[in-house]
Every structure is written in C-alpha cells, then in structure tokens.
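Sync notes, pocket subgroup
Present: LS, DG
LS reminded everyone that the earlier model was apo-only. Rerun requested with protoporphyrin IX containing FE included. Inputs:
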Amino acid sequence: MGTRVYDEVDVSSIAFWSLPPEERDGSFAVLRRERPISWHRPAEGGLVPQYHVDPGYWAVVLHEDVVAVSKNPQTFCSGRGVMFEDIPEEIAESASSFLILDAPRHVKLRRLVASAFTTRQVARIEERIRVHARSIVSELAPLGECDLVERVSERLPVLTLSDMMGVSAADHDLVARAANDMVGWNDPELVGDRLPIELTYQALLTLLGVALNMAEERRSRPGDDLMTALVQAEVEGDRLTDEEIGAFFVLLSVAGNDTTRHTISHGIRLFTLHPDQRRLLMEDFGNRIDGAIDEILRWSTPVMTFRRTATRDVELRGQAISEGEKVVLFYSSANRDDRVFDDPSGFDILRHPNPHVGFGGGGPHFCLGFSLARAELRAIFDEILHRVPDIRAGEPEYLGGNFMNGIKRLPATFTPARAWG
Ligand code: HEM
C-alpha cells in the first residue's frame, strides 16, 4: 500500500475542484475509459490539514461500480467516515447521525425518522410546500431581476424542513446559513480568514444550539412535528440522548437544505441553456416534470461524492483493494457514464430510462429525503416556469470543493409582473 503510485489524472487538487463542473468531466472520462478503479493522493484542502497521515483513496467512476459498492455495505462500510477527507470524530459524530453508521444501529436510527419521509407522508404536506412556493414566487415576480439563490433556491428548502422539524420562523435564516456553512469548508469565500474547521465548528454549534433548545421545549410542550417525535422516541428501550437528537437535526438540516437549493438553481440554469427542453416541458408540464427533475439531477449531480471504507481485502473490477482503504464514489462521473446514458452530456428531459445516481447508488443509505426533494422541486418549477415564463439565468458562481456541485449566486432576469396574487 505504501508504494502504490498515484494516478496521473489529478482529481484531488483544489484547482481541479475549482474548475466549472463541465470541464472536470474530461478527467473523469479518461478514468472511466482507461482506469475505472484508480488510486489517488489525498484530497487537498481537508478540514484539518495533516489531521492524520492519509495514504489516499480509490476513485470509483463507473455507474455499475458506484451501484455495486453502494449496495454492498458489509464490504464497503460507512462507519469509518463518508467524506473524502478525514473529519475529527467529535465533529463527525455530532453532525452525521445515521449517515455514518452501519447496520444494525443505522437501521434502527434511520427507522425513527423514515416514516416522516415516505411518499405518502410527503403527499400530506405537499399542499404546504405549494403554499410556500407560491408565496416565494409572488415576491419574486415583480422584481425583474435578482439573485435567484437568495430569492428562491435557498428559501423553499428551509421553509419546508422547518415546517417538518418545527423550527420557529425566527431561526430560519440562522439554520439555513449554518447548514450552508457546514458543507462550505472548501470554499475560500465562505471560510474567509478563518481556518476551515472554525467555519464548520461554528456552524455545528449553531445548529446544535437550535436543536437542543427545541428539544427542551418539546419535552414540556409537545407539538405535531419531527422534533417532538424524536424526544419521545425510544431505541431498545432507551430515549435518545441530547447528542443523538442534535446529530439528527444537523444531518437533516444539512442533507435537506443545500441539496435541494442547488438543484433548483441548476434547473433554472439548464432551462435557460436549453430553451427547446423548456418548451417541451411546458407543452405537457404535468406528465413531464418528473422526468425533467431526474434529468436535472443526473446532469448536475448536486451531491458529487460520498465515501466508503473497505472492511476486508477485496477485488473490485479486478483491482485489489485492502482492508481499511478509502473508496470514493463519484456520482458525478457515474451520471456521465456512456455505457449507461446515450449522449451523457446532453440535457434531455424525456430520457428514459434514467437510472441516475443523484440520490445515491441504492443500498441502505439511499437518500431518505428523495420524495420530499421531488415535491419541493415540482412545486417550485411549476410556480416559476408558469408565472415568470421568460426567466433567464446568467452565469453561476459555483461553490468550491469536491462534495457539492453548488451554486452560490445565480443572477436572473425576467419581465416583472405588476401584481401577483
Ligand atoms: C435534490 C436533493 C437531494 C439530493 C441530490 C440528495 C442526495 C443524497 C445522496 C447522494 C445521499 C447519499 C446516498 C448514499 O450514500 O447512498 C443522500 C443521503 C441522505 N439524504 Fe438526501 N438528497 C437530497 C435531498 C434530501 C432531503 C430534502 C432530505 C431531507 C431531510 C435528505 C436527507 C437525506 C438523509 C437523511 C440521507 C442519509 C441517509 C442514510 O445515511 O441512511 N436528502 N442524499
């Protein structure tokens, strides 16, 4: 393991992850074609420089392999970390909840909240999501121009999650900003003159503070929300600890906010770049929107990577992988795999089938919030594209880093509407 040579295609540098996403795929295309399982030096710009000696990681770039690893948690576990970089244990534990657990504890903790995220439950709150989407677009429509992220994309996810969790309106902005900072340690603008870990730690403390205040309140005054369910839940006869409740809250806030936010921005940008696809959608919105959402997720892949660790010596596509080595799943590459997708860089809302891995490659950690995200995306695209029909997005400013394909700012222009209901 010590003498292994790093691949000449560099997907570990900050410079690489600062390129526009479209340009990065050239490197992954080489790996897909020539070395689908390749060994790389550790990612630059980790949360804690020199946190420990990190030998590197295996890059998994083909769709079939991303799915195979995702569906084999016994061999490729989540319990030893799911990010490219090593994250100090205390932060990982208080921020990740069941995301970084393996069976059987993963199953038990995930089950506690899973019932709130089923397609049936989401259908129950869909009207509420629509009300939020309508009012966001009512405020947007008269403006004529705006930063779409600030006005639209970041608003709907925080309102939706806050409804579900029971976060008070006074804390909405605080939670949205902290959730954003939690995944921004690779972005120089967000980090500013702090250390990356300071940004993450501050955001974590903010989210934990909100969670613990809410938990205390719900213990004395139960409500009809997820926080009440968490303070009342029992696992193997025990109530959840404050630490466990806090970690649940941080996981749901981070997983549910930025992902959906960036998908909204990517969607509006893609409809600007592909007016033919937008026309196609508007001709039969009701029947085509679900396919369009899948294609936006495939094309943009808002969550680009997650990691597993080999629990034993194993061979993957003929490559020997040793116990304890990191295996990084590149969803963004799998979603451009021409063995699975015709014309993978094209944007085609009628693509069928569309087995993208935007919500993960299947297996026990598959995105818990996929129905909720779809409901939010359907509602917001419906409102924007019908009520602000000539909206055009300008050049996006991307978030740096190897985790999220995020858009920090997206200028948008449109004919202002005078009075919207
Ligand atoms: C378009 C929006 C979204 C995208 C692209 C997305 C993507 C993902 C991905 C790639 C994973 C990892 C899957 C794996 O490891 O196999 C994941 C996990 C997860 N997602 Fe989402 N997600 C989105 C929205 C949401 C929402 C709205 C929520 C609700 C709170 C949510 C909650 C979660 C949770 C809790 C997990 C961890 C599941 C586990 O470890 O068992 N996600 N998501």
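DG: The radius of gyration is 21 Å.
LS: The CA atoms of residues 399 and 406 lie 5 Å apart.
Action: DG to write up.
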